[in-house]
Design a protein that fits this description.
This protein is an alpha/beta fold. It contains eleven helices and eight strands.
Length: about 280
C-alpha cells in the first residue's frame, strides 16, 4: 500500500506493468491518469486527494520502462510501451473510464481510445505529444532531452515549469539522473515519423475530448497545438489556461483537479457508451 493505494504488478507480453489503484468516494467514472516521459504514476500524488472524493476509482499505471514497471522485452520503443500499457489497461478497466494523459501519456491515451473506444468514457489531453514531425523536427525535439550537465537540467526544468520554485535544483538533479538512464535514451533515439499520430486517424476519435494546453507551455512548440487544433474532431474542446506550462499537476494541482472534475461531470451527464466487450481484450 502507498498512501492508501494498492500496488500490484501485471504480467504482459512485453514484461511487468506496475499499477497503483484505489477506490474513490464519489459517483464520477473511474479515472485513469497516464504520466509522461521519465515520470511515473506516483508523480500525480499532489492531485489525487482532490480527485478521489469525487470519483469511483483512480488507476495509476507506470508505462513500461518507467516507475516500477520492467524494461519491456523487445526494446524500449513506442510500440512496446503502448503494447504493455494496453494489456494492463484491458485488465484493470472494469467500466468505461475517463483517461487523463500528460505529454507522452497524452498520446498513449489517444492510442488506447482509438483501439478501445468502448472502454473510454472521455479523454483529457494535457500538452500531449504525438503531433506529426519529420526527421529533422524529431532531431531538434529529441535534442531537448539530452541532459548532460546540471545546467542542462536546470534549463529543462525552466522549460516544463511555468515559474521557478524552491524545488528547482532538486528537480534538475532528478531529471539529470533519469534522462541519462540508458532506457530513456533508447526511447528518445527510437522515435521516427511513423510513431507520430496520423491526422486522419486522429479525426476518428469517438470519446468526448478536452485538450488542455497551458499558456506558459515552453517544451512543445505551438505548431503541435495547431496540429491538434486542426485534426481533433470538431466536438473536442480546447482550453489554454493561464499561469501553467507543461506540468500543471505540479504547478497548480487544485486548478487542474477542477478542470478534470468539471469535464467528468459533463461527460457523466451525457449518454454513456455500451459496456466493454470481452472480445476487445488483448494487446494491440
Amino acid at each position: 500500500m502507498i498512501q492508501g493505494y494498492q500496488s500490484r504488478t501485471l504480467s504482459t507480453s512485453v514484461g511487468e506493468v506496475h499499477v497503483l489503484e484505489a477506490g474513490g468516494r464519489g459517483p464520477l467514472p473511474t479515472l485513469v491518469l497516464l504520466h509522461g516521459f521519465s515520470s511515473a504514476g506516483v508523480h500525480y500524488f499532489p492531485l489525487l486527494h482532490l480527485l478521489r472524493p469525487r470519483v469511483r476509482r483512480i488507476v495509476l499505471p507506470d508505462l513500461p520502462a518507467h516507475g516500477f514497471s520492467s524494461t519491456p522485452r523487445g526494446g524500449v520503443r513506442g510500440e512496446t510501451l503502448l503494447g504493455g500499457l494496453t494489456e494492463a489497461l484491458d485488465r484493470v478497466i472494469d467500466e468505461p473510464a475517463i483517461l487523463f494523459g500528460n505529454s507522452l501519456g497524452g498520446v498513449a491515451a489517444i492510442r488506447y481510445a482509438l483501439a478501445r473506444p468502448q472502454r473510454v468514457r472521455g479523454l483529457i489531453l494535457c500538452s500531449p505529444t504525438g503531433a506529426a514531425m519529420d526527421e529533422a523536427e524529431i532531431a531538434r525535439f529529441s535534442a531537448l532531452f539530452r541532459i548532460e550537465s546540471h545546467g542542462d537540467a536546470l534549463e529543462f526544468v525552466d522549460r516544463v515549469m511555468s515559474k521557478s520554485g524552491p524545488m528547482r535544483q532538486l528537480l534538475a538533479w532528478g531529471l539529470r539522473r533519469k534522462f541519462q538512464n540508458p532506457e530513456m535514451r533508447e526511447l528518445i533515439a527510437s522515435i521516427t515519423p511513423a510513431d507520430m499520430l496520423d491526422p486522419a486517424e486522429l479525426r476518428t476519435l469517438r470519446p468526448p475530448t478536452l485538450l488542455l494546453w497551458g499558456r506558459e507551455e515552453r517544451l512543445l512548440p505551438t505548431s503541435h497545438l495547431e496540429f491538434f487544433r486542426k485534426n481533433l474532431p470538431p466536438s473536442a474542446r480546447i482550453e489554454e489556461p493561464f499561469g501553467v506550462g507543461h506540468t500543471p499537476y505540479l504547478e497548480d494541482p487544485a486548478r487542474l483537479a477542477r478542470d478534470i472534475l468539471r469535464f467528468a461531470e459533463e461527460v457523466t451527464r451525457s449518454r454513456p457508451p455500451a459496456a466493454p466487450r470481452v472480445e476487445e481484450r488483448g494487446a494491440l
